[in-house]
Amino acid sequence: MNNNKRNFLLGLVFWFLAFFFGYTFKKEGGLMAIQPKKNNSFINNENEVTQRLKELDKQFAKKANKDTNVFAKKTYGTYESAAVLSAIGNQENPRPEVIGFHQTNEATKYEGRDSVAFYTSNKGTNPTVVVNSGIIQYSPLSVHVIGITVANFNKILPGMLIDTYHTPNRYTSIVDHIDVSTQTIFIKDGWYEVKEGGSKIAVIPPNGAGFDVNRITKIWGINNNVYLRKGESTEAGIAEEIGLFNEAGADLSGIDVVNFKAQSNFGIKVRKAKSAPSGFVYGYYAMDSGISFMSEATNEDQNFLRSEVKGDVHKGFLVHANGTQSKLRLKAAIFVNGNVKFSSESQRVFILNKTVEELFRIPSPKGKSGELIFLMNVGTATSIIRINNDDGSIVSGKGNPSFNLSPNSSAVLISDGNSWYQQNFNNTIVKSGTPNVAPQFIGQEYLDATNKKVYKAFGTSSTSDWVVLN
């Protein structure tokens, strides 16, 4: 029988003796001594037995909680009674701020009656000890203060960090123990200079500079960590899961980030550690949501969305609450001789800079209803535009499945899900001599650069549909 089981059974026996037969217990020399109470008599009062059984149940419940690591509690009221479990850092008189009414009439200002299962709080604080005067002497494994009485010196604890005030680089170490009578702090394994890349060799800081002990530069409410290491059989992990069961159809949210005082930087921040080789595949993911992202603004000029490139907002863009944005930019690519096909489905602007007439394939319009692509011919040769794998059609003024894009002309195509339709088509043909091809659409222009003649298309059947204007 292990010690835990033995102690539990002994405790059970002691409780029965104490409650039902009136014995008391005390330790003498490491042994438990049993002695009867004065005026001891067998308990025959039914109410008293019932009361002591209830107390015994409470003790068993406490024991069960310890064995199962379950903290069960009925919450009520405010502060600590309204929270099952609390973790509070850096407060002299810690109390969980659940509801937090100081006076009864304050309950009229807040309609909520809250209950919290797990409450956490952490507050910023000053260093335990600050020394910036007196005679300060450093040695390989200590620092000694002479000439002043250091406040709170006796509150220094083993494990606290100590940082000096040397410039340009300070020194740091970890407290091992202290000697209050001589005001000496002994450190674990030496002083190390704080610099970029760190330092591995211990040194002795120059005398005279001050220091502080237990400086806290950043506080956390909760810090969750999950480790999936190579060679282990665990296949997945979640740092924190928030399960919502809203059968009542009430106001239920997963995360509610509230800013109480002044302005904070980020409500939720997703980033990678400096030492990490890469970040996230998805910084934010929403599945089957009515609205995946919502922003509510008090005025229409507030920023709704902002992007930066390496800290430069000018390389990114801004979107305001009213829908206006700082820039509109589509993914573009330049295609020269020999490039006869688009290189990515995400491309929306195709800049053709060719010196020979050749075919150029654009993406299929299938399944892209409402999408647009832009074609620009900045070269000296005509490009024959056709859909990749002939998967779909191009509807132009002439109704052909392809069309010619002349130099110094452009076209905008919009998909209906099956075909590309030309919109705001501008395809002026510039050549030498009279027109030798049929117009592509009514209204098209042809410029005879040699004879300085302008032709206008009044049909699309043959070259006779070109009419000279001058």
User: Radius of gyration, rounded?
Assistant: 40 Å
**Which percent bin holds the helix content?**
under 10%
Mean pLDDT: 85
Which term fits the overall shape?
elongated
Structure report:
- By secondary structure, the chain is mostly beta strands.
- Among the domains are: 3-68, no CATH class; 79-122, no CATH class; 129-213; 332-427, Jelly Rolls (Sandwich), CATH 2.60.120.
- 9% of the residues lie in helices and 27% in strands.
- The chain contains 2 helices and 27 strands.
- Strands 5, 6, 7, 8, 9, 10, 11 and 12 form an 8-stranded antiparallel sheet that branches. Strands 15-16-18-22-23-20 form a 6-stranded mixed sheet, with no helix packed on it.
- A hairpin with a 3-residue loop joins strand 22 (409-415) and strand 23.
- The longest helix has 23 residues, at 46-68.
- It is elongated.
- The model is unreliable at 28-34 and 36-44 (pLDDT under 50).
SSE diagram, text form:
Layout: H1 3-21, E1 23-28, E2 31-36, H2 46-68, E3 83-89, E4 116-122, E5 129-131, E6 135-139, E7 142-146, E8 161-164, E9 171-179, E10 184-187, E11 192-193, E12 211-213, E13 303-306, E14 318-320, E15 332-335, E16 349-352, E17 358-362, E18 372-377, E19 383-387, E20 393-395, E21 402-405, E22 409-415, E23 419-426, E24 429-431, E25 445-448, E26 453-457, E27 466-468
Parallel strand pairs: 3-4, 15-16, 16-18, 17-19, 20-23, 24-25
Antiparallel strand pairs: 1-2, 5-12, 6-7, 7-10, 8-9, 8-12, 9-10, 9-11, 13-14, 18-22, 19-21, 22-23, 25-26, 26-27
